[in-house]
Specification:
This protein is an alpha+beta fold and 375 residues long. It contains 13 helices and twelve strands. Among the domains are: 41-99 and 352-372, Orthogonal Bundle (Hypothetical Oxidoreductase Yiak, Chain: A, domain 1); 109-219 and 263-333, Ribosomal Protein S8, Chain: A, domain 1 (2-Layer Sandwich).
């Protein structure tokens, strides 16, 4: 994760006193390896950021439903300090549309596949609207059966999964989601890309508290983060990727364009990546990451495949004993935090609280690239 540090006053701004959106600010970019760079960053309120994202999508031809659904997820990413799945993704949305790889007006179709399975045909549109369309029936089936799955098919996918997971935990459900992407990642012991960055996300609802959510790529890092390093002209840490000969590389261009990304945790991440290929690919009748990349045909569009979401209702599993057992889960969380360790998503929730007051900061160069899409 790139860490941006505010080199200006450090004083929080209330949203009503935010500086003008396009006024440049000089901010220090503190890299973890001691390099110090300065970037021009600008601050946007969340409303300004959302308006910018939606206007670009509408201007370029997406219908209002897709523009709103996509803008909501990228603004959530920017708000929560997840720049790799934030505003910068709007560039990829427009690129995918211009390449003819996403349908701007696709109407997702909900199919009642089986007592515990909902299918949504995204019809070549972005996944966000398809998830919205399938969520009510997924929730209904989960409450009826205790467990249910949503298979999204034929979707163009680029979003962070926690956005969906949080909707399920808000409904009191436990949730798991995963999907393939493009074949960018070499298996442990190999050097040629086979897997996508294949994220796995999990959520657990907590009464009166933010849910326990983790959401990570099965590669060492999301590809979006390496792309942000490339945009900032910064080397990547060792362990993220290799060159075309399978040798370690810290050059983002080499890893992205010629070599391969690596899995996290060696053979363990590799096996999880393979599992994601299987259960969110052939199991739901959709493409693997290799097939998605072949379909892309060099256009560098967002991946095109399926997504699997599994939801579980604690009340169906536990009945009257639900509260008693959910309390035991709280003991687990306390034993993690009690020794100074943090829960996954804690950083994100803290970033969210800050952004709601201060707005978000994005590089001026990204802002310029985004504005150019309104011409
Ligand atoms: P990170 O490695 O940045 O973080 C992964 C998870 O680990 C987060 O839940 C994070 O919480 C948590 N975490 C990080 N550090 C700690 C710590 N010290 N203690 C406890 N928990 C910690 O994520 P990735 O780069 O692997 O993935 C980033 C995003 O990219 C994900 O949201 C994923 O969905 C998305 N992605 C999407 C793809 C797609 O096909 N649509 C493909 C690949 C990735 P926190 O956020 O609070 O730091
Ligand atoms: O960052 O690896 C990634 C990614 C792939 C698709 C969407 N995000």
């Amino acid at each position: 994760m790139i860490a941006w540090c505010n080199g200006t006053t450090g004083m929080p701004n209330s949203s009503s006193t935010l500086p003008k959106a396009i006024k440049p600010q000089r901010l220090k970019w503190a890299s973890l390896d001691g390099l110090s760079k300065e970037l021009i960053m600008i601050r946007l309120s969340l409303i300004e950021a959302r308006t910018l994202a939606e206007s670009i999508l509408l201007h370029n031809g997406f219908n209002a439903a897709h523009a709103q659904a996509v803008a909501a997820t990228v603004i959530a990413g920017e708000r929560d300090g997840c720049a790799s799945h934030g505003l910068y993704r709007i560039l990829g949305c427009v690129n995918s549309l211009r390449a003819g790889k996403v349908r701007a007006d696709a109407e997702p179709q909900v199919i009642d596949q089986a007592p515990s399975i909902v299918r949504v045909d995204a019809a070549g549109g972005f996944s966000q609207l398809a998830f919205q369309a399938g969520m009510p029936l997924l929730e209904e089936k989960t409450r009826a059966n205790g467990i249910a799955a949503l298979a999204i098919n034929r979707c163009v996918h680029f979003s962070a999964l926690w956005v969906e997971i949080e909707q399920l935990t808000a409904a009191g459900l436990v949730a798991l989601a995963c999907n393939p992407s493009h074949a960018w990642v070499a298996p442990a012991g190999g050097s040629q890309p086979v897997f996508g960055t294949n994220p796995i996300a999990f959520g657990w609802p907590r009464a009166g508290k933010d849910p326990f959510v983790f959401d990570f790529a099965t590669s060492a890092i999301a590809r979006g983060d390496i792309e942000l390093h490339r945009r900032a002209g910064k080397p990547i840490p060792e362990g993220w990727g290799v060159d075309a000969d399978g040798q370690p590389s810290t050059d983002a261009n080499v890893v992205l364009d010629a070599g391969a990304m690596l899995t996290f945790g060696g053979h363990k991440g590799s096996a999880l990546a393979a599992m994601v290929e299987l259960i969110a690919g052939p199991l739901i009748g959709d493409l693997t990451s290799a097939e998605s990349l072949a379909y892309d045909a060099g256009s560098k569009s967002s991946p095109y495949h399926g997504e699997l979401i599994i939801a579980l209702d604690p009340r169906r599993f536990l009945g009257e004993a639900t509260e008693q057992h959910l309390a035991r889960a709280e003991t687990l969380f306390e034993s993690i935090q009690g020794q100074g360790a943090r829960l996954p998503s804690q950083r994100r929730y803290e970033a969210r609280a800050r952004s709601l007051v201060e707005g978000v900061q994005i590089p001026q160069a990204l802002y310029n690239d985004l504005k150019a899409l309104l011409d």
